[in-house]
Amino acid sequence: YAANRNLSDGIYINAKFFSWTLIMHIALNLATKLDYRHSFSSPLVHKDLILKNDTILNSNFRAKIANFGLARSREKGRGHIVGTRRYIAPEYSENGLMPTKLDVYRCGVPMLKMLIGKADASDIY
């Protein structure tokens, strides 16, 4: 259940509602979730983390990561490139490597735009 819908709706549609403190809370919470998934002995790489579809906010504005359909263990090594290509990490687009940085990069660019107030509708994907 996503009481506050997906993260991009909150960022782009209700931007005036999000205070700096709340934005930092959400960003830190999302980073903690990614760190947890990447800390397994065989790290789980989401590969297609999109704020609109894969990050939802509960009633306390805690981020939840969903849609693990393309997720793979990093141990699987190289693979063909799948998922949405916007904000794709260079290591993945150039040679199919799946470092955990892939998820950080995909999430980091839109989050940075949100934090500096440069987000626009094109970031919804």
Q: How many alpha or pi helices?
A: 5
Strand order of the largest sheet: 1-4
Choose one word for the global shape: globular
Q: What integer is the average pLDDT? A: 68
CATH architecture: Orthogonal Bundle
Rg from C-alpha positions?
14 Å
Domain Protein kinase: 1-125
Transmembrane segments: 12-31
Protein name: LRR receptor-like serine/threonine-protein kinase At4g29180 family
Organism: Cajanus cajan
What does it look like?
The chain is mainly alpha-helical. It has 5 helices and 4 strands; from the N terminus they run ααβαβββαα. It has helices at residues 7-13, 20-38, 51-54, 90-95, 101-116; strands at residues 44-45, 55-57, 63-65, 72-73. The longest helix is centred in the N-terminal third of the chain and has 19 residues, at 20-38. The protein is globular, with a radius of gyration of 14 Å. The model has no long low-confidence stretch (mean pLDDT 68).
